[in-house]
Amino acid sequence: MNQILLTADRLFDGTGAATIHRPVVRVADGKIDSVQTSLMQPATCTGERVDFPGCTILPGFIDTHVHLVMGALDTSAAIIEQIGRDSEAQLLARIEDNARKALRVGLTTVRDCGGTKNHVQQIRDRIARGEIAGPDILACGSPITTTLGHCHWLGLVADSFEEVEHAAHRMLAEDVDFLKVMATGGNMTPTSDPMKAQYDARTLKRIADIGRGANKHSAAHVLSQAALLSAIAANYRTIEHCDWRVEEWRYQFDPELARKMIDQNQFAGLTMSGFARRAFNPNLVALNLPPIQRMDARFASERQMIEFGVRYTLHTDAGVTLCPIEQFALGMRAAEVELKLTPSEVLRACTSSAAEAICLPDRGMVQAGKRADLVVVEGDPTRDLQALEKVCAVMKAGVWYHRSPV
User: Fold this and answer.
1) Could you tell me if 202 and 317 lie in one domain?
2) I need a labelling partner for 266 at 20 to 30 A (CA). Which of 4, 146, 209, 259 fits?
């Protein structure tokens, strides 16, 4: 049995229950064999030993909402134009490149929430076969949307109940890991309206039911309360963005809806993409755009939701405007500032909570029996999340994909 022993100054186990000082993590056959707080007897220390002084060991990071086919360009129009113009080879190359960058910054699992055709599945499978490097990918294929609805330019349009049924079954036939629906319009697509529902309650429930029938979870994009009630009632596993807007400029947290989410163990996916990073980009504030002007009200409603007890993940929406996947750490730092979270709460949201939200019980914690997805960062991220920008080692399923001296 090949073994690797990792030591560092400290360990964050994914739960935040306690920080372990001077940990010894033993990895064997792709899994975490043990986590100890003192060196083991020499007779048990066979295999490779790697020390990371001044560093912290964490579970591999999980981003529950990315778009690997998108190029994080300066405008949504430019992103849409690029996707429409590129050849299949170019689309696949960008997905592969984004996957490689994701792994390099410590993302060992990502959930892709909308791509073109079956391109993300192709890259997912090549990674799984060991042909290329990248995180584990959960793919929804193309999101289900309406004619001229949000992200219709990704290619899966369905308007009637019957068309939606067909679209959901088509995605399952294309071997997706979960189903995704655009329950409201979105900010990227000018022909859609974020304040309006794109489907009625019956249709949204049918998508989730089809997913459950195939033992797969479903995700609903929701940018206003126009569709929030229906998405919660349909018991979508994750409510992406989970926006509490009732009018263009007004947010109103609803305790009754939140209670239903808690009772059904649903997760809100809170988005820390480009505009949400205003604290680190003064140029954004100077633009004085509506998405930035609404941020205070948005974050206040999300803070109410968190304090009420709704479970949540933090995601980046990587690939959208001004949000390259390699800036994952900046999104997590923005969550600390804007949502008034502690560093440990942020770390939990992108490790153990994220794994539970997307139904992956084998990862998200540094614990015996879990898959050996590990990240080592220089410094102490439980005190300063800027340490997440100093990744010095990444292991996925017991295999080193990056390791640099510290």
Assistant:
1) yes
2) 146
Do 55 and 90 belong together in one domain? no
Query: Containing domain of residue 231, as a range?
Result: 61-357
Alpha-carbon distance of 148 to 169, in angstroms, equals: 21
CB distance 68 to 123 below 8 Å:
yes
CB under 8 Å to 17, separation ≥6 — which residues?
none
Q: Are residues 51 and 75 in the same domain?
A: no
The CA-based angle 281-103-348, given to 5 degrees, is: 70
Question: Digits of tens for pLDDT over the chain (406 positions)?
Answer: 689 999 999 999 999 887 899 999 999 999 999 999 876 554 455 678 999 999 999 999 999 999 999 999 999 999 999 999 999 999 999 999 999 999 999 999 999 999 999 999 999 999 999 999 999 999 999 999 999 999 999 999 999 999 999 999 999 999 999 999 999 999 999 999 999 999 999 999 999 999 999 999 999 999 999 999 999 999 999 999 999 999 988 999 999 999 999 999 999 999 999 999 999 988 887 777 778 889 999 999 999 999 999 999 999 999 999 999 999 999 999 999 999 999 999 999 999 999 999 999 999 999 999 999 999 999 999 999 999 999 999 999 999 999 986 6
How far lies 18's CA from each of 21, 35, 281, in Å?
9, 13, 33
Q: Could you tell me the pTM of the whole model?
A: 0.97
**How many angstroms separate the CA atoms of 351 and 315, rounded?**
11
CATH code of the domain in which 34 resides: 2.30.40.10
Between the CA of residue 231 and those of 42, 220, 266, 310, what are the distances in Å? 56, 7, 10, 15
Q: Specify whether 254 is located in the same domain as 348.
A: yes
Q: Rounded to whole angstroms, how far apart are CA atoms 337 and 279?
A: 8
Pairing type for strands 374-378 and 311-315 reads unpaired
Q: Give the burial class of 48: count Cβ atoms within 10 A of its Cβ; 0-12 exposed, 13-18 middle, 19 or more buried.
A: exposed
**Do 315 and 389 belong to one domain?**
no
